[in-house]
Amino acid sequence: MQKLKLAGLSILSGLLMGISWPATGNLAPLFFIALIPLLYVEHIISQNLDKYKSRHVFFAAYTTFFTFNVFTLWWIWFASAGGMAMVAIIYTFFMATIFYWFHTAKKRLGTKRGYIALAVLWVGFEWLHSNWELSHPWNTLGNTFSNYPELVQWFEFTGVMGGTLWIFIVNILLFLLFKNIFLLKEPIKDNIKFISLVTAIIFIPVIYSITTYVNYAEEENPIEVVVIQPNIDPYHKFGRITEAEQVDKIIALAKQKITSSTQYVVAPETAIPRGSLEADFENNYGIIEIRKLINDYPNIKFITGISSQIEYGISDTKPTLTARSYGNPKKWYDAFNTAILIDKSSTIQTYHKSKLVLGAEKMPYPKLLAPLESFAVDLGGTFGSLGAEKEAKIFTTNSIAIAPVICYESVFAGYCSSYVKKGANLIFIITNDGWWKDTPGYQQHLAFARLRAIENRRSIARSANTGTSCFINQRGDILQATNWWKEGSIAHSLNSNDKMTFYSENGDWLGRVLAALSVILLLWSWSIKIKEKFTKN
């Protein structure tokens, strides 16, 4: 019966986390209590080590985070059953391991330091999870506030990981309060200071944020932008529908909204679907048609996505880890998911997507796992590992700089801030969210973009092939959102901004600091374990 109780509490935590998440429940304040059942499970196991082993904490945590990941990310199945399995199994393993390390640190370092270690280790893990080969920061816990911009205006200082830290601090303090009052039977009057502390930690950031949200005023630097949503089925766009049909539709939609004041037109990721050599761009049908549009409207700059290639020539050895070959003797080339800017000049500015989707655009640790590349999922018109830009790159036109963020990159808070640090005044997100059908996937992707606007105080134009296209202002409000599976074009004047937030200037500073502190805490905990072993011997 006790084991059933522990399993039920573990599942309850996962369900509360899922109900809190954007688009799967959207009850973000629930996350402040979502971890309490799991913390209670850990407490029971810690108090009964004669009956339970530390591994039982790992199994309980695995149950919680497996429930959470399946609840919030089940929609990945529509694009890739393997991708869904990877998230549900592998990333749950990472999360459960962090919770297990907290449990062992609590045993060795003491209760107070142990709970501090939980918050530190988790944020440190989220920073690592945004920066290593297996990165998948979709479920960074601070993302739960994506549709509550009025509560998290202070992310301009901490970024989304500040939200994760907030969640853990509140959950831990509320659990300790629960333990004092309901388990240890302490009178409420003896916990007044504790209650006051918890109340302050919850409401001081909220009050600051609401005040900032109400009073925030953008500087008036209007840039008129037209955004296109062509609504082409992504499973058809790379074969069943011709390139000419797709490009002609985009041009026609653009003409519906372009005025004499329009400065930018934004079309989605891989809107020009045919793979094109970058050295031969000017012979690509899509680019030819965009050039004609610019001849009619010479003030516009057209930003869109294209599948592009760079050739390296003949060689017996691969020139890059991601290079592909054809012919005999072998000719090598790299394929890219690319953003381009075309204007009335003869130069086409290019940026190659850097943060690639695991299993669809990238095989991690290519030297080690290259034989598995044939199992990659084909999303976006290119198959197998793509080439990538080494760092963020901005498009510059006159006095305005644009961050060309491609799809999945908008989930990486620190990476998006690096565009702004390089001088980006506006953020343009180009994406193709239709792979997951009408599920929470595209809604979550949209919601996360609101946090990028707050963190950097940059207005956003978001062009989705399918899903939701919209504008987002500098305090995270969504403007003129299009409907799911509807073609159309929208126009709006976005205010550019050249002021840096603390977060734009310093990126994921909180994650870096807590990742370093995590290493210290783990070494301290493990050294005590080693010392105990030697003492027993």
Walk me through what this model shows.
- It is globular and about 75 Å long.
- The chain has two domains: 2-215 and 509-536; 222-506, 4-Layer Sandwich (Nitrilase/N-carbamoyl-D-aminoacid amidohydrolase), CATH 3.60.110.10.
- Mean pLDDT is 94; it is low at 374-383.
- Strands 1, 2, 3, 4, 5, 6, 7 and 14 form an eight-stranded mixed sheet that branches.
- The two termini are 38 Å apart.
- Strand 3 (272-277), helix 11 and strand 4 (301-314) form a beta-alpha-beta unit.
- Helices cover 45% and strands 16% of the residues.
- With 537 residues, the chain is α/β, with parallel strands linked by helices.
- The chain has helices spanning 2-20, 31-34, 36-47, 55-73, 81-109, 111-129, 155-158, 160-183, 192-215, 243-257, 285-296, 366-369, 413-421, 440-456, 502-506, 509-536, and strands at residues 222-229, 262-266, 272-277, 301-314, 324-326, 331-342, 348-352, 395-397, 400-406, 426-431, 460-464, 470-472, 478-479, 488-495.
